[in-house]
Amino acid sequence: AQTVTQSQPEMSVQEAETVTLSCTYDTSESDYYLFWYKQPPSRQMILVIRQEAYKQQNATENRFSVNFQKAAKSFSLKISDSQLGDAAMYFCAYGGPQGAQKLVFGQGTRLTINP
Amino acid sequence: NAGVTQTPKFQVLKTGQSMTLQCAQDMNHNSMYWYRQDPGMGLRLIYYSASEGTTDKGEVPNGYNVSRLNKREFSLRLESAAPSQTSVYFCASRRDSPNYGYTFGSGTRLTVV
After folding, report:
1. Do B106 and A44 make contact, defined as CB atoms within 8 angstroms?
2. Distance between alpha carbon A11 and the CA centroid of its chain, in Å?
3. Which end of chain B has fewer CB atoms < 10 Å from its terminal CB, N or C?
4. Are the C-beta atoms of B47 and B30 separated by less than 8 Å?
């Protein structure tokens, strides 16, 4: 079974600085998808960024980018120019290639932004 | 607005009581899911439905039942609530294309006393 591990329960960063959240996963599949979700205090789950495993190029969405290392099974999220609104729980998730594509989530990292 | 609607948003139950969490989506998605979120454990899959008329167990199905009433609606039932079922419950749906991830409801905070 696939597993996802986020080894940083909490992280903090100064406003306007850069922070990187770590995620590792375990799978025997060669084709899959990886996601980062943000959960602010409102509890809503918001998709931040996604990465297809067959693509070598790292995904980027504005201030959010990933470092996808397929061989190392690592998928970190970099947030540049951190803003107060980035404060939230961040979840890394793995999705398989076929079927109902059940997402497997990591434990989450709580990110605090210091003004 | 299009999306996933969950009701209720909050609920307190006594041990042994039953209740049904409702979920509906208006995006014509085939796949629907129920997750529970507990501190330090992320989201864990309870049940899912890949299409109307089908349901399958996820990682933590014990104590729950589901019904895929039609393409839009996927309900989660607790027959005899236990304190261990105190959690935040999320319903989600997904398009067949895997590129778009999930659309989540706003969650139900359930407390069993």
Report:
1. yes
2. 13
3. N
4. no
CA A75 to chain centre: 7
Distance, CA of B51 to CA of B66 (rounded, Å): 13
Select from A43, A52, A101 the Cβ nearest to the Cβ of B94: A101
* CA–CA separation, A8 and A74 (whole Å): 14
One-letter amino acid at B87 equals S
Q: How far apart are CA B69 and CA B3, in angstroms?
A: 18
B4-7 and A10-14 strand pairing: unpaired
pLDDT string in tens for chain B (113-residue length): 679 999 999 999 999 999 999 999 999 999 999 999 998 889 999 999 989 989 999 999 999 999 998 999 999 999 999 999 999 999 999 987 756 678 999 999 999 99
Q: Mind telling me how many Å the CA of B43 is from chain A's nearest CA?
A: 6
Q: How far apart are CA B89 and CA B15, in angstroms?
A: 17
Contact at CB, B56 and A100, closer than 8 angstroms? yes
* Residue B6 to residue B21: CA distance in whole angstroms: 7
Token pair belonging to B59: 């990682």
Contact A51, A75 (CB under 8 A): yes
How far B47 CA lies from chain A's nearest CA (Å)? 10
Residue A97's pLDDT is: 76
Angstroms from A7 CA to nearest CA on chain B: 11
